[in-house]
Design goal:
- This is F-BAR domain-containing protein.
- It holds the Pfam family FCH.
- Keywords: Coiled coil.
- With about 500 residues, the chain is an all-alpha fold.
- It has 3 domains: about 270 residues, Substrate Binding Domain Of Dnak, Chain:A, Domain 2; about 120 residues, no CATH class; about 70 residues.
- The chain is built from 14 helices and 2 strands.
- It has a two-stranded antiparallel sheet.
- Helix 5 runs antiparallel to helix 6 and helix 13 packs antiparallel against helix 14.
- It is rod-shaped and about 190 Å long.
């Protein structure tokens, strides 16, 4: 344990030392002779930022196009016609699909939100960062160019003074050699020797002055160079390093905001998926089967068995009621006679014209037709039809169903010539009865829907009447607030509407 603990401490100290050494490493110290490469790197880093900006813009376009495609897809498959809407709202599998379409709309909105967040947060920030960094980089480059020109100028002056010093030194050397030769030449006069010495002296003095000038330029250049490499250049490189650090931090922040733009909508996307899952889990075949029953159930009873007709014994009643060999006549009776809702929830079978083989038919040629009425009792009672030879015997080509239907019309009366009863109420025409073309069960369903709608509307009107009544009381106490008569007229109109709704409810009930 002690060995492992000491090993951990050693590793920790090494990491701390490494981090400190990395922190102490500066571009101004480490890259003093690589300014051009540093400047190029700074430019490349900014170009990368601009490239990333283009990436973000293209990313937004992808999100927008995806959202647009999702919305177009949902719009294409969303039911538009009312019959389609009715179908899609009845079954669990269609409801699950509609829920998917609805949630896809929300998903499309979330993708639009991603694009909007990227534009508002990431793209704007990186544009500002690139602009500021370019300005700062240009400032650093201009400062570097300025101090570099100063250094180059001092170096040029130093080189010029060196060239001058070299020329003067060479001239002084030649003058000295000439004087030495003249001093050794015994043929030269004293005046010529003095002239050679004066020339040597003047050249030497000029050389000394040139050397002094060169020395001063060397000192000035060294000072400028020292200032350049020890202070000015490190400062500029440090500014570029700080600029790169700022660019890196800003880019990091942009990366994080880019990720957050996606992460923020994930809970909403998950909620959309959860809602799809919830609706899908409610998909139930039994529920759909029950919905199909409710949608298409007619409420008719199964047709009775057909009895064989024996013309030899004069079974005219059976022939009258079974004139059609295919059994289609019985459907006429089922549709034409008014429906009666049995207390047990089934439609009574007494509204069916029985064949001679049924329990309600007579064996002596008398057919009994049972007709039951609506809630108001407009049609009620039992009619007996005597089977006569004229009724029973028909020509082979005669309309089989027409005779039976006309017989029923004779018994119950024509729908277009029905007279009022003694109680003052007129029997409505069967063809004018609401939803008369629908089977009994579907009519019952429609009636119940109408009753529910009327009751809902009645409740709204009653609440509106209560509000207007209170308002009328206020206007009675304070006429300046409004005209009482206007409110009274509105109440009268609502009362009329309420009476109509109550009448409709009773009618459908």
């Amino acid at each position: 344990d002690c060995v492992s603990e000491s090993h951990i401490n050693l590793e920790t100290r090494r990491n701390i030392k490494t981090n400190r050494s990395m922190l102490n490493r500066s571009w101004g110290v480490e890259l003093w002779d690589q300014f051009d490469n540093v400047a190029k790197y700074a430019e490349k880093s900014l170009q990368f930022c601009e490239k990333y900006e283009s990436f973000l813009k293209d990313r937004c376009i992808v999100e927008d196009e995806y959202a647009k495609a999702l919305k177009k897809l949902t719009k294409t498959y969303t039911p538009k016609l009312k019959e389609h809407e009715d179908f899609y709202n009845k079954f669990t599998y269609t409801l699950a699909f509609c829920s998917t379409l609805k949630e896809l709309q929300d998903l499309a909105s979330q993708h639009e939100l991603i694009a909007e967040n990227i534009r508002e947060r990431s793209i704007k920030q990186i544009q500002i960062t690139v602009k500021e960094c370019r300005e700062q980089r240009k400032k650093c480059l201009d400062e570097y160019a300025k101090i570099k020109r100063q250094l180059d100028k001092q170096h040029e002056l130093m080189i010029k003074s060196l060239r001058k010093y070299e020329e003067c030194h060479e001239s002084a050397r030649r003058a000295k050699e000439s004087y030495e030769k003249a001093h050794e030449d015994l043929d030269l006069s004293r005046a010529q020797l003095e002239k050679a010495r004066d020339t040597m002296t003047s050249k030497s003095k000029i050389c000394d002055d040139a050397h002094t000038n060169y020395s001063s330029h060397v000192s000035l250049f060294n000072e400028t160079q020292s200032l350049f490499y020890e202070r000015q250049l490190p400062n500029i490189l440090s500014e570029l390093q700080q600029l790169d650090g700022k660019r890196s931090e800003e880019l990091k922040d942009v990366y994080i905001k880019f990720i957050q733009s996606h992460a923020e909508v994930l809970p909403r996307i998950q909620r959309c998926l959860d809602e799809m899952t919830k609706q899908t889990e409610q998909l139930n075949a039994n529920t759909d089967a029950h919905a199909v029953i409710e949608e298409y159930k007619s409420g008719y009873a199964i047709p009775d068995d057909q009895k064989e007709v024996d013309l030899a014994i004069g079974d005219y009643s059976s022939m009258l009621l079974n004139g059609s060999s295919n059994g289609q006549d019985q459907q006429i009776y089922n549709i034409t006679l008014l429906n009666h809702h049995h207390p047990t929830g089934e439609l009574a079978r007494s509204n069916t014209l029985r064949s001679s083989g049924s329990d309600h038919s007579s064996q002596n040629g008398v057919a009994t037709i049972y007709a039951v009425g609506n809630a108001s009792g407009n049609v009620n009672g039992t009619q007996t039809l005597m089977a006569t030879p004229a009724m029973g015997l028909r020509k082979p080509g005669a309309n089989k169903s027409g005779g039976t239907a006309s017989t029923i019309r004779k018994i119950f009366g024509s729908s277009s010539h029905r007279k009022p009863t003694s109680n003052g109420n007129s029997n409505s025409s069967i063809s004018n009865t609401p939803y008369s073309t629908l089977p009994p069960a579907q009519r019952l369903k429609k009636f119940q829907e109408q009753i529910t709608t009327c009751k809902t509307e009645l409740e709204k009107k009653q609440k509106a009447k209560e509000g207007l009544t209170k308002m009328r009381l206020v206007f009675q106490e304070n006429p300046k607030f409004g005209d009482e008569q206007d409110v009274t007229q509105q109440i009268i109109a609502i009362d009329e509407h309420i009476e109509k709704l109550i009448a409709e409810i009773k009618r459908f009930e």
